[in-house]
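Appendix C: a fully annotated inverse folding record. The material below is reproduced so that readers can follow the format used throughout the book. The structure is listed first as tokens, followed by the designed sequence.
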């Protein structure tokens, strides 16, 4: 039976732990110290019908770092879907060309519909306000790595999810993924009208976790281990919501002042990115750049090992990587970004 990665619903804790183990093993390749060719000859089809930088490029790079190559199409304009071609036909056609497919599409459920027509593994790279399972896996991998560095454990941790929890597919997938683990405390803070859907809260509570909902960030968060901030997904608002939306007030902003006043020295700050850097957006503030608590670029870097692990397991080569690797020959900088903190 073909396995796809369409939703966190299909993942068990054991499968998640296996993926994280494979991701740890491929780190030297993801960090450009070693190379492997286990997917030599394989071709990935990257189909992105919505804007993307990280997911599109990192899936592409992860496949190339395993030795494969990539064909892609971006936007409806350059795809025959613009001529009315169905998801079924597109799926069958693409399956004749490639060995795995990553797809992002603006409609919830569309990637699953696409996957029904193919025996080639399909990965959901984001389906409207639905899910973004590979992002949740890289987020969990980031939390796990940061916690090992800080000597913390996920069991009993306190996490804050904030921003657009209604339309943010990354938090939908992440909260489901976290719920597979030992009980933790999750606080939710969102601007009015952008709250986490009730069915997700009910699911997480039914699995023994403590969920707390607060109206704003204006309170003490000293025992917080992780702040996960998100962008307001205005592109998913109904017409009525857009007309009535007056912006996010400053009481929802995560910046250096908030961190210093309300949080501990070892609280990490995450964001799936992109952050909306326009001043009126009041998204995660760039004044935290260079602060070791800001984990957002370590988080994006973690997209490579996780996506390599996803391909390696879906295509059944994870046990071959150990045997097929050698050192790189080109120059790799010690620090990738100029502001990267030492931690
Ligand atoms: N990049 C993430 C997504 O596609 C989050 C966002 O766009 O705000 O879901
Ligand atoms: N985090 C994420 O999905 O980023 P992109 O939208 O740039 O792919």
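Designed amino acids, in order:
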């Amino acid at each position: 039976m073909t396995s796809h990665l369409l939703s966190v619903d299909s993942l068990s804790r054991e499968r998640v732990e296996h993926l994280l183990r494979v991701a740890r093993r491929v780190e030297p390749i993801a960090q450009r110290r070693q190379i492997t060719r286990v997917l030599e000859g394989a071709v990935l089809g990257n189909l992105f019908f919505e804007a993307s930088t990280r997911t599109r490029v990192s899936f592409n790079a992860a496949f190339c770092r395993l030795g494969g190559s990539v064909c892609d199409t971006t936007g409806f304009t350059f795809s025959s879907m613009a001529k009315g071609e169905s998801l079924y036909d597109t799926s069958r056609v693409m399956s004749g060309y490639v060995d795995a497919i990553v797809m992002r599409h603006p409609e919830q459920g569309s990637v699953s519909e696409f996957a029904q027509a193919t025996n080639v593994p399909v990965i959901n790279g984001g389906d409207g306000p639905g899910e973004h399972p590979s992002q949740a896996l890289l987020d969990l991998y980031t939390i796990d790595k940061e916690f090992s560095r800080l000597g913390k454990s996920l069991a009993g941790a306190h996490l804050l999810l904030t921003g657009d929890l209604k339309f943010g597919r990354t938090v939908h997938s992440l909260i489901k993924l976290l719920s597979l683990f030992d009980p933790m405390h999750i606080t939710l803070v969102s601007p009015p009208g952008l709250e986490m859907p009730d069915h997700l809260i009910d699911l997480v509570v039914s699995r023994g976790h403590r969920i707390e909902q607060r109206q704003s960030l204006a309170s003490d968060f000293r025992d917080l281990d992780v702040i996960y901030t998100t962008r307001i997904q205005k592109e998913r608002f109904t017409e009525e919501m857009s007309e009535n939306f007056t912006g996010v007030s400053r009481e929802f902003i995560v910046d250096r002042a908030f961190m210093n006043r309300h949080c501990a020295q070892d609280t990490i700050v995450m964001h799936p990115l992109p952050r909306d850097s326009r001043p009126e957006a009041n998204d995660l503030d760039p004044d935290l750049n260079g602060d070791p608590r800001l984990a957002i670029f370590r988080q994006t870097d973690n997209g490579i090992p996780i996506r390599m692990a996803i391909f390696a397991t879906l295509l059944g080569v994870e046990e071959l990587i150990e045997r097929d690797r050698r050192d790189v020959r080109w120059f790799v900088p010690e620090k990738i970004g100029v502001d990267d903190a030492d931690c």
